[in-house]
Design a protein that fits this description.
alpha+beta; 6-stranded antiparallel β-sheet; 2 helices; about 30% strand
């Protein structure tokens, strides 16, 4: 049985993301390796963790996490990114971003698009 809907996995493959899917208790962890970050940040790339809850895609995707820690070039934290969480063997920086979830419409594609826009803001 697939860990995520076939349409989501096809999206990840079509976009040629370097990714990994892992069962983590009741959740699925999607790790996007080497996500590029704009010059507003101290890192050029980081791994991103998306925690996929039971019941997805009807259940909402919420927040994302980065490893290593990402700071703004000014030395400040990105907005709402000061919390660290342990997932698996790594400590991840939590990006507290919340978007309205439209059950039956939203999916990994819409979530990753919103996530990319948040990162691009550089704040």
């Amino acid at each position: 049985m697939p860990l995520i809907p076939e349409t989501d996995e096809q999206y990840l493959k079509d976009k040629q993301f370097d990714y990994e899917l892992k069962q983590a208790g009741p959740e699925i962890h999607l790790i996007l390796r080497g996500w590029p970050f704009p010059e507003a940040y101290t890192v050029r790339s980081a791994d991103i963790l998306v925690r996929i809850p039971p019941g997805y895609p009807m259940a909402q995707l919420d927040m994302f996490h980065t490893h290593p820690t990402v700071m703004l070039r000014s030395g400040a934290w990105p907005a709402a990114c000061q919390q660290m969480e342990q997932h698996g063997e790594r400590t991840w920086q939590r990006w507290s971003r919340h978007h309205a979830w439209r059950s039956g419409i939203d999916n990994l594609k819409t979530f990753i698009t919103a996530m990319a826009l948040e990162i691009k803001k550089g704040i």
